[in-house]
What does this fold into?
Amino acid sequence: MTTTAPTTTAPTTTAPTTAAGRSTAGRGSRRGPIRRIIATSLGTGTVLAAVLTLVVFAGGPEPVITGSALLGFAVGWAVLAVLSARLTDQPQRWALVPAAVLAASGLGLLVLAPDDRVLTAAGWAWPPALLALTLWIGLRIRRSLAAGSGRRLLYPVVLVMAAAAVGGAVETVGLAADQRAYPMPGQAYDVGGHRLHLDCTGSGSPTVVLHSGLGETSAHWARIAPAAGGATRVCAYDRAGQGWSDDAPRRRQDGLQAAADLHTLLDRAGEHGPYVLVGHSIGGDHAMTYAARYPEQVAGMVLLDATSPYTVGDDAAHTGPPSAVALLPSLARLGIGRLLPTSSWSALPDPAAAQVQAFAASPRGWRNLVDEVATLPALLTQARALATLGSTPLVMLTAAGHDGDPARAAAHDRMAGLSTNSSHRLVGATHAGLVDEEHGAALSVQAVADVVQAARAGSPLPPN
It folds into this structure.
């Protein structure tokens, strides 16, 4: 009798499937790697973009900063596509599309180096294109990544890209609206390859010429120019790259180049010196540089809490702007500056306040700030060339809070000592308030009036 041993059949296990019918066998062990790869790609793109903008191309112009950032982010998307295909069962080859688009855009900006007008015109095209790409990426993430395998790491990136697209569109529309809303007052004159804006009011002599501070424009003098213009002729102007003036062929100008531009501007406009030079903040250093270059053109000077030219060494003249400052124009292109209220830019009344905001919040305004920061050491070095004004009347105003700074007080004393006919006044106004606040502007107007009167009469300045 033959006995047959019973056989045991092993149970068959069917791999679970997704709702779409795709097997998830082995996916549990893969979820960790895909999340790590997504995190690695995001970190790679972010770090590389930061290194390129803050180290490799630190202080570069807007196209270079934006282009290098796009290249960094492109590498991040490429890392996601390559590593996910090689190391996981969830290949994200679609990520090569944003990688290619961002890389091409970044290289285009680096190679072509478009100017502000081209970048502004491109604002009508790239925001909708970026928004379309963002929506496509969002759909690909949902279709290609299983729930819980890293979607949540990528969705914030999608939201940031969408916000950038919307902000870029808002900025482009806003720039166009600002151009229509704020036509240029005064006139623009060719000074040799570019045009500078000049706005003069009042009559009489000597003519007062107003020099704006860091990041300021002719609109900042809205409280002072009309008040001072009641007694003499007053001219406010915009340096190259500011306000209604063109950019200079060589975009970053030092103090001597700006002084030469101003000298040509006044001549082309038919204005006659000698002039009373009024400068706020670094505008005071521009006034000093002009006086050193054209001493015969100076009838008097008013320095409104001017930046000290005595605190920088000659070796600093060739340094660039801080790396983070150079990011500002690119960020402004996303409409970030328009998030701030008008009052945050100045205390001026409208329409001057709106004009100030329109320029200061724009990519061009922030770029001008970057350029002036870059050339500030050279300007301060050149301002030191003014060794004396003789008996030319000079008023130095030191804003409240700065009188407690021994170094600044000593520098202002030294600046006041440039003339034997000078007055150093400690005033109850803030640095910005000397121009844009009613009380501070009144103090500045009085200083201008005192210098104008002393220049006319050839008399000593009144006591403080």
